[in-house]
């Protein structure tokens, strides 16, 4: 996908970021993938031995999403080997920050720099990550994304209810035409069962919970 096909929004709001994500999601050239929703407490009960017995709230799942958006190295170390966030800005409908990380490729063993414009939708409890080819770094320098794989946008969100939260995840890879290899790769994660790794890390690190998979 060329830079001009998905240019940055001229207005900086969460609503504009959501519109950009949805436009990419619905473009027939891109590869759009949605993992099955994860019923957090049901998965905890069925797939883990949990000490102490724990049920997560929607607020806790959302707290995890906000922390992960800022600090990917802590919450997704199985994907990210370096990570940095900067330039937090309050918006009329949420918050924005910029993020750089070194991530492994999905279809190879390569690693490269990923740049993201991150929008936190406080009302809808979702975070939109918009992949960018370049960003202004924390010291005014120009950062460039590595071209080792296509740019991509991601939506992480909390659904369900406060007592029965659901973890939601969508990605759209900005391909020139639909590439089923990406869907097959992400399907493996859904088929593995259990909680996403970032929720396991949050439970252990932030809530002091010991988990053992059954």
Average pLDDT metric: 93
Task: Give me the oligomer status.
Answer: single chain
Structural class: alpha+beta
String of helices and strands: HEEHEHHEEEEEEEEHHE
Helical residue percent band: 25-40%
Poorly predicted regions are 1-10
The general outline is globular
**Could you describe the largest sheet, including whether it forms a barrel?**
8 strands, antiparallel
Strand content: 35-45%
- CA distance, first residue to last residue: 42 Å
Number of strands: 12
Radius of gyration: 17 Å
Total helix count?
6
Describe this structure in words.
The strands form three sheets. Strands 1, 2, 4, 5, 6, 7, 10 and 11 form an eight-stranded antiparallel β-sheet that branches. Strands 3-12 form a two-stranded antiparallel ribbon. With 214 residues, the chain is of the alpha+beta class. Helix content is 28%, strand content 37%. It is built from six helices and twelve strands. It has helices spanning 14-26, 40-47, 58-70, 72-75, 180-191, 197-205; strands at 31-34, 38-39, 48-51, 80-91, 94-104, 111-121, 126-132, 134-136, 142-144, 152-160, 165-173, 210-213. Strand 10 (152-160) and strand 11 (165-173) form a beta hairpin.
């Amino acid at each position: 996908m060329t830079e001009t096909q998905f240019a940055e929004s001229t207005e900086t709001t969460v609503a504009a970021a959501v519109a950009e994500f949805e436009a990419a999601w619905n473009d027939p050239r891109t590869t759009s993938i949605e993992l099955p929703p994860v019923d957090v407490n049901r998965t905890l009960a069925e797939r883990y031995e949990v000490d102490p017995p724990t049920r997560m709230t929607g607020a806790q799942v959302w707290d995890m999403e906000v922390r992960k958006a800022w600090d990917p190295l802590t919450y997704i170390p199985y994907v990210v080997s370096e990570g940095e966030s900067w330039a937090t800005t309050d918006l009329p409908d949420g918050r924005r920050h910029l993020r750089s990380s070194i991530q492994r490729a999905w279809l190879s063993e390569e690693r490269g720099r990923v740049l993201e414009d991150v929008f936190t939708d406080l009302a809808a409890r979702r975070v939109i990550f918009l992949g960018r080819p370049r960003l202004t770094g924390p010291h005014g320098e120009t950062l460039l994304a590595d071209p080792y794989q296509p740019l991509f946008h991601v939506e992480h969100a909390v659904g369900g209810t406060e007592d029965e939260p659901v973890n939601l995840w969508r990605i759209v890879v900005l391909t020139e035409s639909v590439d089923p290899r990406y869907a097959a790769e992400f399907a493996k994660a859904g088929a593995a069962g259990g909680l996403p790794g970032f929720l396991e890390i949050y439970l252990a690190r932030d809530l002091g919970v010991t988990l053992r998979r059954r």
